Automatic annotation (TrEMBL):
It comes from Rhodococcus daqingensis. This is TetR/AcrR family transcriptional regulator. It comes from the Bacteria. Residues 34-53 bind DNA. Keywords: DNA-binding, Transcription, Transcription regulation. The keyword DNA-binding applies. Gene3D superfamilies: Tetracycline Repressor, domain 2.
Length: 212
């Protein structure tokens, strides 16, 4: 019983640290937030982050995976479906394979989802250990393979160079969805979906134009 209680307490502490880091990283920037600040925001002692996560990068990886594990799993399943199809996908289908799970996340957890995307925007192109440990780089490679199938006349090197621009355009835009709402009010769920559909059309058109 004592072991079970300690495990629960440890899980609760880890959860508080992850959520505190998520809030601070999104608001202030990943590299601007100290481990000390995360510990304090979570109401923990000065050694809590290192005890539970081993390092700052370990904490960042936990933040990325907390909401991101399910997003990545769903993107992976979408990519598997595209890869298994005999016919090559359209560019729009590849874009949606990536972006639909983000919409689902924001529909379920709007506030935390937007925070998480803001963190992803900060670190996704840095190649830092926390990102590598989440498996995102492998998933990105698999997704680009489907872009190449959708655009067989385009050199793979060009896809590698330009596809990330389309991805980052989507991520940056979806992370600011409520910041850009008219009158400073938060979009309704219907308006969020409409914004997302417009964004998908924009990203798809841009990708087709850049890569064709």
């Amino acid at each position: 019983m004592a072991g079970t209680t300690q495990t629960r307490q440890g899980d609760a502490t880890r959860n508080r640290l992850v959520k505190a880091a998520e809030r601070l990283f999104a608001a202030q920037g990943v590299d601007a937030v100290s481990v000390r600040a995360v510990n304090a925001a979570a109401g923990q002692g000065p050694a809590a982050v290192h005890y539970h996560f081993g390092s700052r990068e370990g904490l960042l990886a936990a933040v990325l995976l907390d909401l991101g594990a399910d997003v990545s799993r769903r993107i992976g399943a979408n990519v598997d479906s595209l890869a298994a199809a005999t016919e090559p996908p359209t560019v729009c289908e590849v874009v949606r394979a990536l972006t639909d799970p983000y919409l689902d996340l924001l529909l379920k957890q709007r506030t935390r989802g937007i925070r998480w995307v803001k963190i992803v925007v900060q670190v996704s192109r840095e190649g830092r250990p926390a990102v590598t440990s989440t498996g995102q780089e492998e998933l990105s490679i698999r997704l680009r393979e489907q872009v190449c199938r959708a655009l067989p006349a385009t050199a793979a090197e060009r896809v590698d160079r330009l596809w990330p621009i389309a991805v980052m355009s989507f991520l940056q835009s979806i992370s600011r969805v409520d910041d850009w709402a008219a009158g400073g009010t938060r979009l309704t769920e219907a308006e969020l979906v409409e914004y997302y559909e417009d964004l998908v059309r924009f990203v798809t058109g841009g990708a087709e134009r850049m890569l064709s």
